């Protein structure tokens, strides 16, 4: 009992990648810790896409149930980003399936252009752009990467970033400006969009 309590305390201190390695070895405690850390993120994402709390909750549980199997098939370097992509793809598959089911039920109706299709296509295009941007972030140096993430994704001010990175505001501005330029070059050369 004491060992179990100590292990639970220590497992909270492990990094995501350390937990991933334990999950690959069928460690239920590690899986429970990842669930504890990321269930709200996955639930929020599922709810954003599916607009139905029960369906979103069911999909979130299904994602975590299949997590061990998925981790064994993929090399994961950034668990949070990988889980986000996995969850988004699962949501899109549910949406596609429900759209196909609806179309097969309504195939006797005359087809009319649906404005929601445009919105759906727009969402997919936006997600593809975000995915390309996420991949392009890998070309940045560590400081540029961190400054860009803090500024654009975490909505931190220059002053907050300077304090977090223990550097000057001018250095932060320079890191962000150079990082944006490098991302633009990468995306233009990589034909990601």
Description:
The protein is built from 10 helices and no strands. It has 193 residues and is mostly helical. Helix 4 packs across helix 6 and helix 9 (158-165) packs across helix 10 (169-190). The longest helix has 27 residues, at 79-105. The protein is globular and about 45 Å long. The model is unreliable at 1-7 and 108-114 (pLDDT under 50).
Topology:
Elements: H1 2-11, H2 16-24, H3 28-50, H4 53-65, H5 67-73, H6 79-105, H7 115-136, H8 142-153, H9 158-165, H10 169-190
Helix pairs in contact: 2-3, 3-4, 3-6, 4-6, 8-10, 9-10
Summary tags:
193 residues, mainly alpha, Rna Polymerase Sigma Factor, Chain: A, Arc Repressor Mutant, subunit A, 79% helix, 0% strand, disordered N terminus
Unreliable stretches, pLDDT < 50, 5 or more residues? 1-7, 108-114
Largest sheet: none
The global form is globular
- The proportion of residues forming helix, as a percent range, comes to over 70%
Mean pLDDT: 81
- Would you state the CATH class of the largest domain? Mainly Alpha
N-to-C span: 55 Å
What's the gyration radius in Å? 21 Å
Order of helices and strands: HHHHHHHHHH
Question: Outline of this structure?
Answer:
The chain is built from ten helices and no strands. The protein is an all-alpha fold and 193 residues long. The longest helix has 27 residues, at 79-105.
